Amino acid sequence: MKAKIYVTLKKGVLDPQGKVILSSLPNMGIEGVEDVRVGKYMEVVLKDLGREKAQLLLDDACRQLLANTVIEDYRIEINE
């Protein structure tokens, strides 16, 4: 079983890395981009625990380690 975890900054949290990318794009000839937000993407391979148990396990991992829930949101997608 494989899970995909997306961690992104919450709305209203400044994203200096995204701003640097946004300001660099026109110098590369890439026009029309209004905003850039940088996040993290993780793939986790799990033993077959069942969808519900896997969701609980990964939710716990995100809250404790993978995401800073004060400034970041996360989304988990589980594929069996």
Classify the oligomer: single chain
- What is the class in the CATH system? Alpha Beta
Number of domains: 1
- Which sheet architecture does the biggest sheet show? 3 strands, antiparallel
Please give the share of residues in helix: 25-40%
Number of strands: 3
Based on CA inertia axes, which overall geometry fits?
elongated
Structural class: alpha+beta
Q: Catalogue the unreliable spans.
A: none
CATH architecture: 2-Layer Sandwich
What does this structure look like?
The chain is of the alpha+beta class and 80 residues long. It has a single domain, classed as Phosphoribosylformylglycinamidine synthase subunit PurS (Mth169, Chain: A). The chain has a 3-stranded antiparallel beta sheet with strand order 2-1-3, covered by helices on one side. The chain is elongated and about 50 Å long. The chain starts with a strand and ends with a strand. The mean pLDDT is 97.
In a few lines, what is going on in this structure?
The chain is an alpha+beta fold and 80 residues long.
